[in-house]
Amino acid sequence: MSQLKLFQREHQMYHNILPKLEELYTEVGKEVSFGPRAFKLDYSIGVQYILMVDLKSRGYRNVDRKEGFNRKCLKQVLKKLAQLHAASAVFVEKNGEFQKLLTNGVYTKTNQSVLHELHNPDPFLSQLRRWRLGDHFHKRLVEKEQDLTDRLMELHTSNTNQFNVLNHSDCWVNNVMFKFDRAGNVEDTALLDYQVVKYGSPANDLYYTILSSAAKDIKLAQFDDMVNYYFYHLLDNLKTLSYPRTLPQFKDIQDALSKHGLAAYVVVTRVMPIAMMNQFEDEVNERYASKMKCAMFTSRKYIQAMKDILPWMESRNLLN
After folding, report:
1. In terms of DSSP bridges, do strands 165-167 and 198-200 run parallel, antiparallel, or are they unpaired?
2. N or C: which end of the chain has fewer CB within 10 A?
3. At what angle do helices 134-146 and 148-155 cross, to 10 degrees?
4. For residue 286, what pLDDT is reported?
């Protein structure tokens, strides 16, 4: 956590960036919040901390991790991301680029060794060969996996020629809380855990959120519909906040999704298996983490999902 500067990044987000993004909406008469309020003690306690409002006491809750976001919840998450992305794009136009801590995220040369460790290909590849159709994909991926971290570093190098936003970068089912009314409709959505935010293409958040956490019946079947829904709200919020540049076109988002196949691959091979695990412990020790690395790829639910996802990715040229 120290190496990747997770606390510094989240502290910056809760105490500096998010209030300023919310203020942009306040200025146009719209009330938008991106997560729980954070507070600072007026004296030092000798450790880094994030002190937040307890959303659970205010009626917010997570949805079932193993079930993921249903269509209703997923649309609310994408709507919230569209608000965040639009505000961040307008913020940059008004105030200049975010500081490097947020612009680069965790993808820096100083973090390469940690990233290599986090993206160790062996647990996934060793299980992939055992699946039906797995051998076909294993042959395609085994060599590419050796350069995965280097390719990710290239992918996440800022490209000023594309439409960029501040991505949440970890928007999966465990990092979103909802407040429901008595009829089961979503009253409010709160995003949590801003430790790995990263400035770049919105394609990163779209792949991360939908592929990691959408319910199985909508993950692929309604992927394009959900992207379309996100884009509608992105444009609406950019207009509301008087974005000074030419508005992005839907084709810009489609092109970004095509170019960011690697982002989709990392989600389905590193994030989705955790989301789909039958057992999940919040208190992770080294012994459990080691066990989890193998167990998360042997889940029947995950294997079944990947039998659909890998051909889907191949048909969209996302494995190239």
Report:
1. antiparallel
2. N
3. 70
4. 62
Q: Taking CA 206 as the corner, what is the angle to CA 203 and CA 208, rounded to the nearest 5 degrees?
A: 105
Average pLDDT of the residues in 190-215? 97
Q: Using CA atoms, how far apart are residues 199 and 54, in angstroms rounded to an integer?
A: 28
Integer CA distances (angstroms), 203 to 92, 159, 210, 222, 272, in order: 18, 13, 11, 16, 17
Q: Are 204 and 241 in contact (CB under 8 A)?
A: no
120 CB-contact burial (10 Å; exposed 0-12 / middle 13-18 / buried 19+): middle
Q: Does residue 269 contact residue 261 with C-beta atoms inside 8 Å?
A: no
Q: Which residues are CB-neighbours of 32 under 8 A, at least 6 positions away?
A: 22, 25, 83, 87
Q: Using CB atoms within 10 Å of the CB of residue 81, give its burial: 0 to 12 exposed, 13 to 18 middle, 19+ buried.
A: buried
Q: Radius of gyration over alpha carbons of the chain, in Å? A: 19
Cα 138 from chain centroid (whole Å) = 26
pLDDT at 283 exceeding the cut of 80: no
Nearest one of 259, 243, 272, 258 to 88, comparing CA atoms? 243
Could you state, in order of their start, the residue ranges of all structural domains in the chain?
Answer: 6-315
* DSSP type of residue 69: B
Please provide the average confidence, as pLDDT, over all residues in the chain. Answer: 93
pLDDT of residue 287: 61
SS3 214: strand
**pTM, entire model:** 0.95
Q: What is each CA distance from 276 to 64, 65, 172, 208, 301, in whole angstroms?
A: 11, 7, 11, 14, 7
pLDDT-based confidence at residue 43 (cuts at 50, 70, 90): very high
Domain 6-315 has CATH 1.50.10: no
DSSP β-bridge partners for residue 214: 69
The residues, any chain, with a CB within 8 Å of residue 12's CB and separated by 6 or more, are: 99, 101, 102
